[in-house]
Amino acid sequence: MKIKAFVRDHIPGRMYEKLRRLKSLLLLFVLFMKQDRRFSKNAALPGNMGQKQLETQLIFFSHQIEKGLSHSNFRPGFGSRPIYALGVCLKNWNSHGYSKDIFGFKVATSALKAYIDKHDEIGCVLPDFFNGAFDREIMKDIDASDPSFSGTSVISGSENSSSMKTYSQILNSRVSIREFEDCPVSESTIESAISLAMRAPTVCNRQPQAVRVIFNKLIIKQALTIQGGWRGYEFPPALLLVTAHNSSFNNAIERNEPYVDGGIFSMALLGALESYDLGACPLNTMFDIHQDGSTRRLLNISEEEEFIMYIAVGKKKVGVSHPRSFRKAAETVTTVIR
Ligand SMILES: Cc1cc2nc3c(=O)[nH]c(=O)nc-3n(C[C@H](O)[C@H](O)[C@H](O)COP(=O)(O)O)c2cc1C
């Protein structure tokens, strides 16, 4: 502290500001390097295939199967890529002798059972690539799987959409909806949902979030084509883009806070949309450089903002299916420290 006070009192103001900036940039660099090391060592990147990373792959590819199973215009024999990948991952899992009582393993075998059952139900033979993907041990695991861990569920009508839902009702009833009624969404209802979501807390109440509400069909189509995670569905009647302003943050240690505040706000917005009985689906903005640039140009977004997520919005269509997206038990993610 004494050195800091000495420097501040004895060097010209502009020079002092430059030194402070240099210190911030150095700290930012060091923190990013450490983050880089943590991520590159532990994420499920090629070459990092421990049990946890393999479980990530199992959940990732199983969700693709669930999505394919939930389509209204179901395409028999879909999914050669995720089925092949699940075959490789499950073989790997069993050859390491990992437990079959792990969430990702149960989800994967359950998703594959749902795939078989769906084909049986509609009288279609399984595609050749399915039969070629799994050995006898895995086929036994699939056969013995618990159906509640994957598959699809159906969207039911709200029991009473005019009465206010409690927070627990909202969390229990909201799901990602990707097929909507073919009708516009009221702008004022979306505005009311955004107003409600403004109750979300942010660090020091800085409120870095911003929302673009897109109704233009061509822009929605272009934006989601760049995004890439909406293949096989009709484009939604409305698309929200949540971003967060970097200018709301003032220290290198706050570098990830746009994502935290933006994420909390987005969840509040999803809840608010559900409270107005609108269907919604969060959509990632995990862009590569090309997608980032194209989206910024399309929507006129400067580098000052970070992408948080899109949210597709529309009127719920009763009776359509959605992926079950079964959740882990709370105790498996909780550590109590006494
Ligand atoms: C940040 C984020 C990004 C997502 N991106 C996509 C996406 O690109 N495409 C998609 O179909 N679903 C996407 N989802 C939806 C998830 O698949 C879904 O939330 C998850 O399976 C849990 O299911 P639920 O929302 O029905 O509870 C995303 C969800 C979140 C939170």
Automatic annotation (TrEMBL):
Any GO molecular function: oxidoreductase activity
One Pfam family this sequence matches: Nitroreductase
Domain Nitroreductase: 173-214
Gene3D superfamilies in the cross-refs: NADH Oxidase
UniProt-listed SUPFAM superfamilies: FMN-dependent nitroreductase-like
Official protein name in the record: Nitroreductase
